[in-house]
Design goal:
- By secondary structure, this protein is mainly β.
- It has one domain.
- The chain has 1 helix and 7 strands.
- It has a 5-stranded antiparallel sheet. A two-stranded antiparallel sheet has the order 6-7.
- A hairpin with a 2-residue loop joins strand 6 and strand 7.
- The longest helix has 10 residues.
- 8% of the residues are buried.
């Protein structure tokens, strides 16, 4: 069940991951799901991958949550962003291959 984010999280440190079953973003605060959103803006972003979870995906061939983004929550909404003036190109490496989104 999706729940909206509490207002007091603005300016707080959060972790965000894509929730495949609920088709939204799940926002964690203090290691608990605080709520869900379709769009978020986060400052001071760092990307994290749990190696144990990644290895489990490779072995079991089933998706699980093992990658997330950490940062300071600026804004969140229940609708998709359709017109974004500032876009960010994210580069990362998978098995020695560079990727861009």
């Amino acid at each position: 069940m999706k729940r909206s984010l509490p207002l007091h999280l603005k300016g707080q440190g959060v972790s965000v991951y894509r929730n495949l079953s609920a088709r939204c973003l799940s926002v964690l605060h203090k290691q608990r799901v605080a709520g869900h959103a379709q769009s978020v803006i986060i400052e001071g972003v760092t990307f994290h991958v749990r190696e144990g979870g990644r290895q489990k995906v490779l072995v079991s061939k089933q998706k699980n949550v093992h990658a997330f983004v950490k940062g300071c929550l600026v804004w969140a909404a229940d609708e998709q962003l359709s017109d974004v003036n500032d876009s960010v190109a994210v580069s990362y490496t998978i098995s020695g291959k560079s990727c861009y989104r």
